[in-house]
Amino acid sequence: MNKLTYIDYCQLDHFILRKILSRYGQPFEVKCSNSCKEVLDQLVLQRADTENLPDIIFLDIYSAEFDAWEFLDKVQLLYPAFSKPIEIYVLSAARYQEDIDRLRQYDLVKAFILKPITKEVLQQLIVQRELAETRFATIESLN
User: Fold this and answer.
1) Tens of pLDDT along 108-122?
2) Which residues are bridge partners to 139 per DSSP?
3) Distance between CA atoms of 58 and 143, rounded to whole angstroms?
4) Which of 28, 75, 102, 115 has the most C-beta neighbours closer than 10 Å?
5) 76 is in which domain, residue-wise?
6) How far is Cα 58 from Cα 111, in angstroms, rounded to an integer?
7) How many domains are there within the chain?
8) What is the per-residue pLDDT across 6-50, written as a single tens digit (0 to 9) for each?
9) Cα dihedral value 47, 111, 26, 123, nearest 10
10) Exposed/middle/buried for residue 48 (C-beta within 10 Å: 0-12, 13-18, 19+)
């Protein structure tokens, strides 16, 4: 089962993601946090623990404590010490081309996802993950 960590200050978004995943039978164990620092601390502690490291991190671009850029910079430094690869997907309710261009500079970021998270967005994400040659994608609801 894939492990997904979702960093977002909005508890409603946590709830929506869990509902969509459970309703459509996606095999994910989900941990939600409103704190980049908390998740970063866990990654440091678990960096050699393949069983407990997440496979995927959803990261809201405007997170509390420190922003996504600071989080990505810190994770990028830690990344070689992780016992397995972690895919990071950055989410935002706003689409700014400057943000997307900046995200492309991080090899560990696999996609930019425009909120809201919907069934269609998750289906696009699954397809994007299966196309391993795709380095970066923009995923958004077709509605």
Assistant:
1) 999 999 988 888 888
2) 113
3) 21
4) 75
5) 2-139
6) 10
7) 1
8) 999 888 889 988 888 888 766 788 999 999 999 999 999 999 999
9) -170
10) exposed
Two tokens at 9? 């200050």
Rounded to whole angstroms, the Cα distance separating 50 from 73 reads 22
In 3D, which of 131, 129, 135, 139 has the Cα closest to residue 27?
129
* pLDDT recorded at residue 119: 84
The pTM score is 0.90
Please give the sequence-ordered ranges of beta strands (E in DSSP) within the chain, or none if there are none. 2-7, 28-33, 56-60, 87-92, 109-114, 137-139
Percent helix / strand / coil, the chain, rounded to 5: 40, 20, 40
Tokens of 18: 């869990």
